[in-house]
Amino acid sequence: MTDHTPPAAVSTGVRRWPVDPEHGLLRLAVILTFVGGSILSYIVFTLLFPQGDGGAVNLLGVAVAIGIAMLLTRAVEGGLKRRWPSGRVFEIDGSTIRLTGKGTPTEIDGAQHVNVLTWRFTISRRTRVPKGWFVVALALVQNDLYLPVYTFMSPDEFNSLRLNSHFSTLAPAKQKDKGDLRLAGQQRRLRTAEYARWNDGGELSKDHFIEALDALGREFPAWMISE
């Protein structure tokens, strides 16, 4: 997964990070680029190097077309990530923590008490993120309002995360609790937070997620997790 992360914006008293660097429309554009690039490259190759058997598939042309389309897609994806943000941002503005972009912004008052939930789970099948990587998530909870942000990390990246010991493993929903009431309660809270992340969570790049953790720790030491 290529990371073309734009820098976090900094203004007076405000820290701001772009959310959803690989948003849905961008992914659609990348897919269309690959498909269109493959077809166009194949047509051009077969015109330049026609095959004797009429109607037969030019296997070399297919291979070349896919290779060219992959290179083209990688270049286009990098440019789009830099120039086509989702419009959503995660920001710390004084004592206000805010996730914007989907309707009404979600806001947490950092001057009041905030519950912090942190968890991770393993990606079990390959999508745009390699199988075996982790979803690493943080939710700030206040008055039944959830503000979730998350990122993707390889196991090695997670192991080097300074606060990794705070991120509990989210058990599969089908896994039965084994009589430990405290653990069962923790898992219920994490599943509620995961539901909020799935529906309205903000994806940050790995570097921005780490920056946000550090910024929250500096600004709100009274309730933010720490070493």
Which class best fits the helix and strand makeup?
alpha+beta
Helix and strand element order: EEHHEEEEEEHEHEH
Backbone shape? elongated
Total number of helical segments? 5
Strands side by side in the biggest sheet: 1-2-3-4-5
Quantity of strands, as a count: 10
Share of residues in helices: 25-40%
Q: What is the number of independent domains? A: 2
In what range is the share of β-strand residues?
A: 15-25%
Average predicted confidence as pLDDT: 83
Low-confidence spans: 6-12
Sheet bearing the most strands, described? 5 strands, antiparallel
Distance between the termini: 30 Å
Radius of gyration: 22 Å
Structure commentary:
With 227 residues, this protein is an alpha+beta fold. The chain folds into two domains: 9-20 and 94-219, no CATH class; 24-83, no CATH class. It is 39% helix and 23% strand. It has helices at residues 24-48, 59-83, 155-159, 181-200, 206-219, and strands at residues 9-11, 14-18, 89-93, 96-100, 106-109, 115-122, 134-142, 145-153, 168-169, 202-203. The strands form two sheets. It has a five-stranded antiparallel sheet with strand order 1-2-3-4-5, covered by helices on one side. α1 (24-48) packs antiparallel against α2 (59-83). The chain is elongated. Residues 6-12 have low confidence and may be disordered.
